[in-house]
Amino acid sequence: MDTLLAVRARGITKCFGDVVALDGVDLDVTQGQIHGLVGPNGAGKTTLLGLLLGLAVADGGGLEILGTPVGRALAAPDGVAGFVDGPGLYPSLTARQNLAALAALRGQDARTAGIDDVLAQVGLTDVADDRARGFSLGMRQRLGLAAALLTRPRLLVLDEPSNGLDPAGKKHVHGVLTRLADEGTAVVLSSHRMDDLEALCSEVTILATGRIAFSGPLGKLAAENRELDYRLLTSDTHAARELALGTDGVRVVDDAGLRNDADVLVVRALVPALDELVVGLVRAGIALRELAPVVSPLEAAFLALTQQQEAGR
Amino acid sequence: MTAANVVADNVVPTRRVPVSRGYRFELVKLVSQWRIRLLVLACWIAPALFVAAVSRQSTLPVDTLFGRWMHATAWAGPLVMLGFAGTWALPLLTSVVAGDVFASEDRLGTWRHLLVAVRSPGRIFAAKALASLTVLLLLVTGMACSSAVGGVLAVGNQPLVGLDGHLLTPSDAAGQVFLAWACALAPTLALAGIGLLGSIALGRSPMGLLLPALVALAMQLAQMMPLPVAVRLALPGYAFISWNGLFTGPRQLAPLLIGIAVSLVWAVTATVLAYLLFLRRDFTNLTDDGSARRALLAGALPLAGLLAATVAVVAVTTPATGSGIEQDKVQRSVATAFAHLYRMQTDQLNRPAVTENQLKATAACTKGSVADGAEGAGNDWRCVVSWHLPGVATTGQAIYQLDVTPDGRYVADGDGPKEVNGYFLVRTPVGDAPNPLWQFDGNVELLATSPKG
């Protein structure tokens, strides 16, 4: 195996009193990879991110970050940056002063630390000299990302970085994360926004009640998954419905009426059966105008796996 | 070779941020706050304005130590300010600065950010403690310098009348005034340590912010109670009072040094407790607001133990017994102050000079109906001062009513004869002037032993 690991966790456990936050968690994140972390509230995502950032130490198991075994002391190795539960900003300082203070803390000269560059990367150049007190949540998130970028991280840990972002801000953040990954930085991010994770991540880990429910590439997740609901918009809904009813492995979900859209057909199928339906529609001369999963494969897998895990307990 | 090992070859181990950089970072954060900027401005400007304004008024704050001399010398103003600072300003300033330095990170939710950046809770603690100490020093220095400048500009660099009536030259007075302010730093540090402890133990709770002020208030109330001397000296706020001993001759150094030592022990103990509590904190828990139980077990109980220990040490190692206010000490103090002030009055009236030795002043004091062995604080002390003038056969006598407070301070109020101490003005060759013998402040040294025989 030649891949360089930025994070290697084996059997990590962490308890808070009687509460088991992490229970035997394994995690591998390679350099240059954006790795998503999903799970319901209380699944242990923030605890795991906190361990990566050196905010807490595991009670058991082994953790290597950027090749350095993490000891019992609170502190992450150099090259790790990020935030959990929102970025830490000082409201009495401007965006530029927040970054300059952070640069000075790391012994960097504020003039040469690249503050303007990182502000431009996250789209905050226009408000660089405004106090952080007046920043919206999205601007705070972007400034937090800029603060992390200032350290030129090789492992970037972000908790819900898309919270509060408008489309422009989201575009900036996605662009920055993708470029960082291209340059070899490993990114671990948690989010409840499945569309973000699907757009950004090559691998995901699903946590449920402190345990790993799934970890691996998104494609593998889709393959492991069960039937999905798909939304079809065709030129002849009635004929399409008849065709769907006659296709093996395809079931019509009769909730289109609930969606207040009589032209929409919702079917439940695995991918091969869906392919067959699409071919049938085309052969029958029915135009397929829209085909999309009702919920994303990741979200469906997330719901299925976490519910399964909960039921197993 | 494993993947992790491949990476390990290129990895720089964890580098913690030096305390000096963390210190600068904390200073930037503190100074960027408007309330801190306003406090610094206020401490460097307001005392000068206050001293200058009050010194030029016809009515002086005579109920404040040295207040009655504010019209006469620049150096009374800074001491009036010091009395006010020890009672109100320093505890409140300590609350705002040290009481909030940790709690502010809780309020802003920035602990995790700070810990990721600095990578060492111990260094964060050191940087925060040093930064808050620096700001406090800046504030205290501002008050001392500002009040001195205000006094010099408004009144001039004149001699100061000490607490036993002797005159301090302007340079001596200036030195003693700044020394007194320096001594007040010790109890300020003790309050700062308590502030750090409260800020950590109680988190965002307002009690964390108010703790230094509340402790200072409790100490002041305790000083007003008729406590045994050993307990009084073992309280960390006593050094806010014991600087008075610098303005007597000889200087009353024992209570001053004990007060400073006790304050410093409290400062160190409270800071160490705060440090230990901080290291044990769970930074992954955002809702950590401290707990009353933790504050009690890790903060209040050890400090209560420290108080008991210092009371025991002071009681064993010093001649401290009872209230410390005894009849012969009061008599000596009043007679000494009277002799010094009589010389001043003699000079004002342009009479032949006389020395304290020639006056041979003595005082006979009673407290209420107790004529022999009187002791304790109260406003029912009455003293008859007797003195001799060279070449005059009769013995002069004057009466004073004394209000002695439990900390040993007293105000002597002249009760006649009118020509000596019964009227607030004396007629001098250049017009009417305040009568130095009419009312004066004095100080009984609580630790001084009575001469036997």
Automatic annotation (TrEMBL), chain A:
Q: Which Pfam family is an annotated match for this chain, by its short name?
A: ABC_tran
Say which species the protein is native to. Actinacidiphila glaucinigra
Question: In which family does this protein belong, per the annotation?
Answer: Belongs to the ABC transporter superfamily.
Stored InterPro entries: AAA+_ATPase (IPR003593), ABC_transporter-like_ATP-bd (IPR003439), ABC_transporter-like_CS (IPR017871), P-loop_NTPase (IPR027417)
Name assigned to this protein:
ABC-2 type transport system ATP-binding protein
Keyword Nucleotide-binding listed: yes
Q: Show where the ABC transporter domain sits.
A: 7-234
What would you give as a GO molecular function for this chain, any one?
Answer: ATP hydrolysis activity
Keyword Kinase assigned to the entry: answer is no
What UniProt keywords apply to this chain's record, in alphabetical order? Answer: ATP-binding, Nucleotide-binding, Transport
Automatic annotation (TrEMBL), chain B:
Keywords of this entry: Membrane, Transmembrane, Transmembrane helix
What organism is the protein native to?
Actinacidiphila glaucinigra
Segments traversing the membrane: 34-55, 75-103, 124-153, 173-197, 209-235, 255-279, 295-316
Q: What is this protein called?
A: ABC-2 type transport system permease protein
